[in-house]
């Protein structure tokens, strides 16, 4: 048996002009006062924001898309994605609202990162280019055209728990 409290929240109006729906929250704390209930629903809203931010980073910015060879490269990729997200947040006031047909107009300072991403290409064309792309005079060193790679790069799998509770990597094969 787990002790807890079920909290029923009802608001008068929402900023999006939709009709508010009642919200039920569960907490393991018992005997909550009004200040604690207020903190509880604020924590729920904050968690909702954080989860959707991670969803955007993974789906739209490709945080977990590349198959990187080295854990240090995965760390660098994470910082690149965070820098891209920060750039989108800073461009909110500059970019115009490019919305899908079913979306309502939004104020320039209140655009979501997805809407900023859609309108980012329009402001990128207006920015000055400090220098042209450097052009090489001859091809660089590398494998001759048409030859195959003889040494495949090592891959590092993501650690996962087995049914027994021990850690292993997805790409590892156990000797039998």
Describe this structure in a few short sentences.
The chain is an alpha+beta fold. The protein has three helices and four strands.
Give a structural overview.
The chain is α+β, with helices and mostly antiparallel strands and about 180 residues long. Among the domains are: about 5-60, no CATH class; about 80-125, no CATH class. Helix content is about 35%, strand content about 10%. It has helices spanning about 35-60, 70-90, 115-125, and strands spanning about 5-10, 25, 160, 165-170. A hairpin with a 5-residue loop joins β3 (about 160) and β4. The longest helix has 26 residues, at about 35-60. It is flat. It starts with a strand and ends in a 7-residue tail after the last strand. It comes from Nocardiopsis mangrovi.
Entry keywords:
176 residues, alpha+beta, two-stranded antiparallel sheet, 33% helix, Transposase_11, RNaseH-like_sf, Transposase
Order of helices and strands: EEHHHEE
Distance between the termini: 43 Å
Low-pLDDT runs? none
Task: Tally the beta strands.
Answer: 4
Structural class computed from helices and strand pairing:
alpha+beta
- Overall mean pLDDT score? 80
Radius of gyration, taken over Cα atoms and rounded to an integer in Å: 25 Å
Largest sheet composition: 2 strands, antiparallel
* Strand line-up in the sheet with most strands: 1-2
Q: Label the overall shape.
A: flat
Strand composition percent: 5-15%
Number of helices: 3
**Percentage of residues assigned to helices:** 25-40%
Q: Which helices and strands appear, and what pairs or packs with what?
A:
Layout: E1 5-9, E2 23-27, H1 34-59, H2 71-90, H3 113-124, E3 159-161, E4 167-169
Antiparallel strand pairs: 1-2, 3-4
């Amino acid at each position: 048996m787990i002790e807890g409290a079920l909290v029923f929240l009802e608001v008068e109006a929402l900023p999006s002009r939709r009709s508010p729906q009642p919200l039920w929250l569960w907490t393991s704390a018992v005997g909550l006062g009004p200040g604690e209930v207020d903190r509880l629903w604020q924590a729920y809203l904050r968690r909702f924001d954080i989860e959707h931010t991670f969803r955007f980073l993974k789906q739209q910015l490709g945080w977990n898309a590349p198959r990187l060879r080295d854990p240090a490269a995965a760390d660098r990729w994470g910082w690149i994605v965070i820098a891209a997200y920060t750039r989108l947040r800073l461009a909110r006031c500059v970019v115009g609202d490019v919305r899908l047909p079913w979306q309502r107009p939004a104020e320039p300072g209140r655009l979501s990162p997805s809407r900023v991403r859609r309108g980012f290409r329009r402001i990128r064309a207006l920015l000055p280019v400090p220098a042209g792309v450097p052009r090489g005079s001859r091809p660089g060193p590398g494998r001759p055209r048409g030859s195959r790679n003889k040494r495949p790069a090592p891959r590092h799998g993501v650690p996962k728990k087995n049914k027994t509770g021990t850690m292993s990597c997805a790409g590892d094969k156990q000797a039998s």
